[in-house]
Amino acid sequence: MQFFKNLFKPKPQAPDFKSLVKNGAVILDVRTKDEFKSGSIEGSMNIPLMELGGHLKELKRNEFPVIIVCQSGARSGMAFDILRQNAVNVYDGGGWRQLNALLKESA
Hints:
Layout: H1 2-7, H2 17-22, E1 26-29, H3 33-37, E2 45-46, H4 56-61, E3 66-70, H5 74-85, E4 90-95, H6 96-104
Parallel strand pairs: 1-2, 1-3, 3-4
């Protein structure tokens, strides 16, 4: 019976990334430094996934939410889990190009 309850459970609503950014959310790109240099969301910061652990205190002190992005969404999902487990107010933005396009829609 639980299977059917889960099957028909409403999907959670996607975050309003535009509003989050407008209200001060930080976009954190967890790709490598070279990937970040090749293109990124304007105003985003870069902390490669492998270096994220060394920045946890800094990110926890941040008063604004953090939106995680990467190339395709895989690394952002891993970073999301790490930050959520460390009590950071975090959202998974997935691939940076998709989030960038969304943020530019009707801007």
